Structure to design on (219 residues):
């Protein structure tokens, strides 16, 4: 077992660990709200979509603040520099999940969902549902790294398989988009950008799990 994992065993109630888990919880809630926002947009529920987007905006700010607090804690903590760096990289990668979720809402706000073909709407909903699963599996992976590191690698594999599923859905959605000859150019571009943002959330989840692997195996 690496020194960092031994540190987890001894320090599970430290401020740093609590901040990491709070940051992870906020990030997961942001992705959950993103799913609700896209479904509300598809269903024409303007107020619900706006409320979800507002929560995501505030959540992303809170996640950024926690990220900075974690960095400050790690910079003055007892861990060796290489272990501090590993945890900093992990926190940054988790934070990208929140950042890309916020970017997705910016695109969603500009996208006239009512003129997006139903087939594409369904593709967006299916994709964001699976992105949420990816984020929830990431939370499980990191929590296991802290509490049961021997199980974290298996959880990382689950995230990787889920990210591959999101990739497949993204490819399928782009094919549907390419078939929409009557869709306005601006709407097509925004739809494609939203698909790309959703894929980037899943990619960020996988990248964070790669960092978990580095922490467990690489030292």
């Amino acid at each position: 077992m690496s020194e960092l994992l031994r540190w987890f065993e001894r320090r599970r109630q430290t401020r740093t660990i609590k901040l990491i888990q709070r940051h992870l919880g906020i990030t997961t809630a942001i992705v959950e709200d993103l799913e609700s926002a896209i479904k509300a947009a598809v269903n024409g529920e303007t107020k619900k979509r706006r409320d979800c987007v507002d929560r995501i905006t505030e959540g992303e700010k809170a996640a950024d603040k926690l990220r900075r607090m974690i960095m400050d804690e790690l910079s003055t903590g007892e861990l060796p520099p290489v272990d501090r760096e590993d945890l900093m990289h992990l926190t940054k990668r988790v934070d990208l999940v929140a950042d890309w979720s916020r970017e997705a809402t910016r695109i969603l706000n500009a996208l006239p969902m009512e003129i997006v073909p139903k087939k594409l709407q369904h593709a967006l909903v299916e994709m964001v549902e699976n992105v949420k699963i990816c984020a929830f599996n990431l939370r499980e992976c990191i929590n296991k790294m802290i509490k049961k590191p021997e199980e974290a690698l298996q959880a990382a594999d689950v995230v990787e398989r889920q990210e591959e599923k999101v990739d497949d859905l993204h490819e399928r959605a782009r094919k549907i988009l390419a078939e929409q000859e009557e869709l306005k150019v601006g709407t097509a571009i925004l739809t494609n950008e939203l698909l790309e943002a959703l894929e980037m959330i899943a990619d960020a989840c996988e990248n964070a799990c790669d960092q978990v692997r580095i922490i467990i195996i690489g030292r």
Q: What stands out?
A: The chain has one domain: 3-217. The chain has seven helices and no strands. The mean pLDDT is 91. Residues 185-217 form the longest helix (33 residues).
